[in-house]
Amino acid sequence: MAYDIDFIKRAVAYKQNGHTFSQLREAFGIPPETYYQWKYNLETGYYEIKKGKQIRKRKIDREQLKNAVAQKPDSYLYELANIFECSPQAIFYMLEKL
Fold first, then answer.
1. What's the confidence (pLDDT) of residue 48?
2. What is the pLDDT of residues 60-85, one digit of tens each?
């Protein structure tokens, strides 16, 4: 079951204000193990929202692959794989996508 980040922060703050684990269980319905896990995750920044668009880095650049195929259209997959330092299967699947 997923909990809202505000609920997690309130539960951790409740316990840190001096309440016991039995009071925590009554008020929020969570065991001590969950409290410790939430506290650790808050301290390490696990719940922080990452801003900005994340772009996947790929080993095979699509434009470079197009150019390599245009220069040598009869090259084997293993030759292209040596250029991009990857497996021939990766070249095959990228060419299939293109």
1. 82
2. 888 988 999 999 989 999 999 898 88
Whole-model pTM over 0.70 = no
In a domain, 38, yes or no: yes
Dihedrals phi, psi of 17, to nearest 5 degrees: -80, 5
Co-location of 11 and 39 in the same domain: yes
Work out how many domains the chain is built from and give that number: 2
Angstrom distances, CA of residue 57 to CA of 23, 35, 60, 67: 48, 36, 9, 19
38-55 core/surface letters (b: 16 or more CB in 10 A; e: else): beeebeeeeeeeeeeeee
